[in-house]
Amino acid sequence: MLSSIAYYPILGKPLILYLGIVTLLSFIITATIGLMIYKGKKIPFKIHPTMAGLSLILGITHGTLALSVYLLF
């Protein structure tokens, strides 16, 4: 069941591809926000943990779908 969700086609490509791209961008944005806060930019710190949580949720979802293709049939 999960593997059919992972391979759900969107514009001819599987969902897991787009989810991986969004996850990578989310981790890059989280790291950029942390670096900007460290350098002294005026960004509320509350944004960084929120983005980190979102990135982890996206990463776990992406990983679960990827593993379902090979392990859960």
Rounded to the nearest angstrom, the radius of gyration is 15 Å
Strand content: 5-15%
Distance between the termini: 8 Å
Strand order within the widest beta sheet: 1-2
Category from helices, strands and their pairing: mainly alpha
* Overall shape: elongated
What does the average pLDDT come to? 92
Major β-sheet profile: 2 strands, antiparallel
Describe it.
This protein has helices at 2-6, 15-38, 47-71, and strands spanning 9-10, 13-14. β1 and β2 (13-14) form a beta hairpin. α2 (15-38) runs antiparallel to α3. It has three helices and two strands. The radius of gyration is 15 Å and the shape is elongated. The N and C termini lie close together (8 Å).
